[in-house]
Amino acid sequence: MYDQLVSKEKKLAVVGLGYVGLPLALAFARKFKVIGFDINAARIEMMSRQQDPSRELSKEDFAGTDIEFTTQLEKLKEAHFFIVAVPTPVDEHKVPDLKPILSASKTIGKVIKKGDYVVYESTVYPGCTEEDCLPLIQEGSGLKPGSDFKIGYSPERINPGDKSKPLESILKIVSGNDAEALEQIAKVYSAIIHAGVYQAASIKVAEAAKVIENSQRDLNISFMNELAIIFDRMGIDTNEVLEAAGTKWNFLKFSPGLVGGHCIGVDPYYLLHKSKKLGYDPEVILSGRRINDRMPAFIAKKLVQLLIGKGKNPSECKVLINGITFKENVSDIRNSKVAELYQELRGYSVQVDVSDPRADREEVMHEYSIQMKEIPDHDYDAVIVAVAHDEFKSLGTEHFLKMMKKEPVLIDLKGLYKRPENGITYWRL
Questions:
Q1: What residue numbers bound the domain in which 44 lies?
Q2: Which of 109, 196, 323, 330 counts the highest number of beta carbons within 10 A?
Q3: How far apart are CA 81 and CA 195, in angstroms?
Q4: pLDDT confidence of 127, banded at 50, 70, 90?
Q5: DSSP letter at 256?
Q6: Distance (Å, rounded) from C-alpha 143 to C-alpha 283?
Q7: Among 177-191, 242-256, 257-271, 338-352, which is the least confidently predicted range?
């Protein structure tokens, strides 16, 4: 398979062209003939014009690529090596929503042929690829895995907004359903991953490795958030504590904060779901999730307490939140905990404005029914800097002082600024 892809006798297809799929497809398209497939016609139209709907890639990133974008199944049938990179979210009850990946599997079942390969990159619980996705491919194609086609799993490791770690520089885990599949899949990925590939012992091992990467980070951040809650009651600055503790060589450096997005705030629920199906109720993982999910309510309550301490009635106060994307320097607003913070403050009858230079106004309105403020006002009782965009890092506390009325309050959730001496009441996690 690898040799035929290199010679361009066969084509590689990426199914799902979001923040994971598009950069992957473009990277492969510098080596192979690639079909970029997505069910969203508007996104396909944008990519055909060399525009990234996620606004992570520039027009130059499309240059020198041999790729065709399509929504057509007939075109997808021309491929022989399929990579599935569709989203795997959770629903409103925090239960894994497998509809996108199961739908993609049905699509693969309609186009796959003898000798083809299918590799999943979407984050799932261990066993999902072989137990949930594979049967749908078999049912749709009438082919048998192993003898008729090969299957594998290679978890995505893209870090949106981090230009220092491009796709090609991140070590890639690969796996396959047998030795031949593993060898060929490893070769295919090695063509674009300069950092090399790690061959996992099995598909389930690769799936598990991915889901615990973000679960581990979720737990570490939840510990920091719990410390922030405790130290706030003690009147101790958490950042100062972490700076002091960080002088020890083996202290792991994590920071408190809002944990949203489509990875860290979601992946642990996949592991929880599978564990519960097997009859075990996880305690540590679930505890960490509860702490992180409670942070918007904790921050909102803290701000209301500070306003009341200033002799102000929260229902008569006006607050600006700077930043609504799920992390710094990205436009992605999916599963944003800042939106939950907004709703928590509205629950106290506080008037809240939101401003973010990276987020799309229409997307924010569609997703959260929040009308973003293009130009903030200058009569706020408090300002919350919720996301560490580069645009916010360059601002000083004097900038916020000019935007606020008497007895101003600045909430710095990311610890971007030094503690001011200009009369602002300053609080950070």
A1: 2-201
A2: 323
A3: 22
A4: very high
A5: -
A6: 41
A7: 257-271
Q: With helix as H, strand as E and coil as C, how does 90-129 read?
A: ECCCCCECCHHHHHHHHHHHHHCCCCCEEEECCCCCCCHH
* C-alpha–C-alpha distance, residues 392 and 407, integer Å: 22
Give whole-number Cα distances, 255 to 189, 225, 237, 318, 321, in Å.
33, 8, 12, 28, 20
Residue 266 lies in a domain: yes
Residues noted as catalytic: 263
Q: Which residues pair with 344 in a beta bridge?
A: none
| Burial grade of 391 (CB within 10 A; 0-12, 13-18, 19 or more) | middle
The identity of residue 103, as a single letter, is: S
Residue whose structure tokens are 């049912």:
139
Do 188 and 256 share a domain, yes or no?
A: no
CATH for 127: 3.40.50.720
Please indicate, yes or no, whether residues 118 and 244 belong to a single structural domain of this protein.
no
Helix axes 238-245, 203-234, angle to 10 degrees: 120
Cα(270)–Cα(247) distance, integer angstroms: 35
Residue 75 exposed, middle or buried by CB count within 10 Å (0-12, 13-18, 19+): middle
Tokens describing residue 60: 């130059």
Does 429 have pLDDT greater than 80? yes
- Is residue 169 exposed (0-12), middle (13-18) or buried (19+ Cβ within 10 Å)? exposed
Q: So what's the pLDDT on residue 54?
A: 85
Name the token pair of 247. Answer: 């002088």
201: which DSSP letter? Answer: S
Closest CA to 184 of 26, 367, 3, 380: 3
- Do 351 and 412 lie in one domain? The reply is yes
**pTM reported for the whole predicted model:** 0.91
Residue with tokens 């540590």: 284
Cβ–Cβ under 8 Å, residues 277 and 269:
no
Closest CA to 18 of 187, 204, 156: 156
Round to whole Å and give the CA distance between 188 and 119. Answer: 11
Pairing of strands 425-427, 67-70: unpaired
DSSP state at residue 143: -
Give the pLDDT mean for 184-198: 97
